[in-house]
Write a structure and sequence with these properties.
Radius of gyration: 22 Å
Strand content: 15-25%
Helix content: 25-40%
Largest sheet: 3 strands, parallel
CATH architecture of the largest domain: 3-Layer(aba) Sandwich
Distance between the termini: 74 Å
Number of domains: 2
Strand order of the largest sheet: 1-2-3
CATH superfamily of the largest domain: HUPs
Bound molecules: glutamic acid
Order of helices and strands: EHEHEHEHHEEEEHEHEEHHHE
Shape: elongated
Number of strands: 12
Length: 312
């Protein structure tokens, strides 16, 4: 018998980076810079690069398609299908079911106002869930259910967190420790909460490198903790500084011509926009994301936010 040789060797386990925009409007220069960094960090480490549309919240008609077009125009490419969170309800329900089976989920009947006004537990960080519904009696739960009926919503489902804090390693920030409270897994409207969706989806997409804006740095420990509960690997994190306007506030659409399409309408090219982003990273003269990949070294990442100054 002749031994069978496979036509091609099995692909190596390469891992993946990702970019996961929320399609609430066009990406601005700060988002585009983060996307380029995510792509560069993935590609230079030989990883795949995945895209995911995080559309569980406010969505603007047509924005998802425009975002993909804009990323492609800068020279980004991605592997496999774009994952769309609104199509992933079964996967989130399955993860939730697993946590429920392990007794790690409880119903929360609190309104937002009640949480804000509740006296916080001793030593709890500001804004942390005060634990009101963690250990209710059957009668209190019945009262809660009646209240939800009157409010015409479902109880939120929260994680019965087994730790107070958790630590992750960030490529730029080093060891980051943040509080972990009983955060929401499923919202009162029945939709998966961001923290659950992101962990389930990163695992499903084989993501082992998360590059994103540093506004999410303190969310990483709770997501990493949740990953360990779900038996998913904790990714490597790289949180990058945000873009600011000249007044020091987070860059936003209202700051003027801040999207790729705005810049094109002012006579710039996609290459000019990449050039601007390259300048902010200390690599002048870039025209495509590939130029940034070839010239930029992560050690060059400025630790301060990018203050965007635009003509016109
Ligand atoms: N969808 C989030 C955003 O656009 C990013 C979430 C993440 O990268 O984990 O801000």
């Amino acid at each position: 018998m002749t031994p069978q040789t496979p036509a091609s060797p099995a692909p190596p386990e390469v891992g993946a980076g990702r970019y996961a925009p929320s399609p609430s409007g066009d990406l601005h220069l700060g988002n585009l810079r983060t996307a380029i960094l995510a792509w560069v960090l993935a590609r230079r480490s030989g990883r795949a690069f995945r895209l995911r549309l995080e559309d569980l919240d406010r969505v603007r008609e047509g924005a998802a398609q425009r975002q993909l077009e804009d990323l492609a125009a800068l020279g980004l490419d991605w592997d496999g299908d774009v994952m769309v969170q609104s199509e992933r309800g079964d996967a989130y329900a399955q993860a939730l079911g697993r946590l429920q089976d392990e007794g790690r989920v409880f119903e929360c009947f609190c309104t937002r106002r009640e949480i804000l006004e509740a006296p916080s537990a001793p030593h709890a960080p500001p804004g942390a869930y005060p634990g009101t519904c963690r250990d209710l009696s059957p009668q209190e739960r019945e009262e809660g259910a009646a209240k939800m009926l009157a409010l015409q919503r479902e109880p939120a489902l929260r994680l019965r967190a087994g730790v107070r804090e958790f630590s992750v390693e960030d490529h730029f920030a080093g060891t980051v420790t943040a509080d972990v409270d009983d955060f929401v897994l499923r919202r009162g409207d029945g939709v998966a909460a961001y923290n659950l969706a992101v962990v389930v989806d990163d695992a499903a997409q084989g993501v082992d490198q998360v590059t994103r804006g540093d506004d999410l740095l303190t969310s990483a420990p709770r997501q990493a903790y949740l990953a360990t509960l779900l038996g998913a690997p904790v990714p490597a994190y790289a949180h990058v500084p945000l873009a600011l306007n000249t007044a020091g506030a987070r860059l936003a659409k209202r700051d003027g011509a801040v999207t790729l399409r705005d810049r094109l309408a002012r006579g710039e090219s996609a290459g000019d926009v990449v050039g601007r982003i390259g300048d902010s990273l200390g690599v002048p003269g870039c025209r495509t994301a590939r130029d940034v990949l070839e010239r930029w070294d992560p050690a060059m990442l400025p630790q301060e936010p990018w203050v965007v100054e635009l003509p016109g």
